[in-house]
């Protein structure tokens, strides 16, 4: 139990550091912040969702004490909550209703399709929360997105026109949703691979063919 607690705390600290790296403004921080759920998912899949929860709470407490409540809440929504819940679902199983003589204790695992559905739900929550930080209505959100694209295009040396900006503003929420789905899926896959490699993943690797 002590070992699991220490592993969970170290994973939480690593996840918090990866999430906080965005403050530096370095290019590598974009990768680190997107992989911030990974340490918690490894713990959740290898040592159980309780370990991920402990690590997530430790990370939130650390970030809250340094950067404030808003930063801690953002970490909880974007990283800790998905890591805990998805780890729980991956390891969720029940005995099969009709077990054969060759496999009397065969288990029925939580379907991969439903796990992907939960990933979409979490990605939608994260995207919606991010948009709400940009303004309280559609016009304010669109204005903030437009201003961000103008600054980004100017910094890259590209000329911007109204039609291009209108298109970018229109597709930005969808692009953010797709990116969030891809990153959560990647983190869960990597976490499962790491847990399986170490022999800690109790669920058999699914055949997706």
Would you summarize the structure shown here?
The protein has 209 residues and is mainly alpha-helical. It is built from 8 helices and 2 strands, in the order αααααββααα.
Description of the structure:
With 209 residues, the chain is mostly helical. The chain has helices spanning 2-20, 28-34, 38-47, 49-67, 69-90, 112-132, 138-156, 162-197; strands at residues 93-95, 107-109. It has a two-stranded antiparallel ribbon with strand order 1-2. The longest helix is centred in the C-terminal third of the chain and has 36 residues, at 162-197. The radius of gyration is 20 Å and the shape is globular. The mean pLDDT is 88.
Low-confidence stretches: none
Nearest-integer average pLDDT: 88
End-to-end Cα distance, whole Å, is 38 Å
* Residues in helix, %: over 70%
Throw out a few tags for this protein.
single chain, 209 residues, mainly alpha, 8 helices, 3% strand, globular
Provide the fold topology:
Blueprint: H1 2-20, H2 28-34, H3 38-47, H4 49-67, H5 69-90, E1 93-95, E2 107-109, H6 112-132, H7 138-156, H8 162-197
Antiparallel strand pairs: 1-2
């Amino acid at each position: 139990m002590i070992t699991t607690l220490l592993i969970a705390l170290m994973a939480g600290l690593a996840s918090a550091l990866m999430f906080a790296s965005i403050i530096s403004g370095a290019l590598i921080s974009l990768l680190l912040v997107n992989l911030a759920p990974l340490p918690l998912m490894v713990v959740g899949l290898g040592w159980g969702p309780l370990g991920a929860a402990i690590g997530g709470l430790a990370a939130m407490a650390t970030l809250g004490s340094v950067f404030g409540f808003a930063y801690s809440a953002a970490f909880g929504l974007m990283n800790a909550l998905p890591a805990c819940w998805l780890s729980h679902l991956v390891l969720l199983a029940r005995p099969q209703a009709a077990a054969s003589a060759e496999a009397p204790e065969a288990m029925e695992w939580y379907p991969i399709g439903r796990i992907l559905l939960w990933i979409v739900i979490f990605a939608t929550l994260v995207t919606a929360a991010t948009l709400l930080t940009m303004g309280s209505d559609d016009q304010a959100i669109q204005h903030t997105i437009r201003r961000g694209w103008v600054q980004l295009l100017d910094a890259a040396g590209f000329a911007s026109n109204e039609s291009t900006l209108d298109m970018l503003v229109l597709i930005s929420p969808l692009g953010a949703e797709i990116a969030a789905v891809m990153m959560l899926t990647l983190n869960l896959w990597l976490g499962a691979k790491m847990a399986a490699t170490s022999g800690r993943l109790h669920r058999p690797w699914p055949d997706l063919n």
